[in-house]
Amino acid sequence: MKKMISLTDSIYSIVKDYEEVIEVMEILGFEGMTNKKTISTVGRIMTLEKGAKFKNIDINIIKDEFEKHGFIVKE
Fold first, then answer.
1. 3-state DSSP call for residue 8?
2. Which end of the chain is less crowded, N or C, counting CB atoms within 10 A of the terminal residue's CB?
């Protein structure tokens, strides 16, 4: 069964459901957001969409990487 995530869900809630998201985020360059303490604080308001804008990462690259790891990405 595929795992579904949304670009507008908080990183905290995504990681809570799928801890393997941390590894995908590291691959994508979200290294500042992969620390468990950061996820528990800033991750409650940060989304993948906001993080992409902040890190200047193309949203399509994010979608592709998550899909490679078995996720369905909603916008």
1. coil
2. N
Closest CA to 57 of 38, 31, 35, 37: 31
The length of the chain, given as a count of residues: 75
Cα–Cα distance, 15 to 10 (Å, whole number): 9
Q: For the chain, which domains are there?
A: 3-74 (1.10.3910.10)
Name the residue type at position 14.
I
Q: Tokens 């069964």 — which residue?
A: 1
Three-class SS state of 19: coil
Model confidence pLDDT, tens digit, residues 22-68: 999 999 999 888 999 999 999 999 999 999 999 999 999 999 999 99
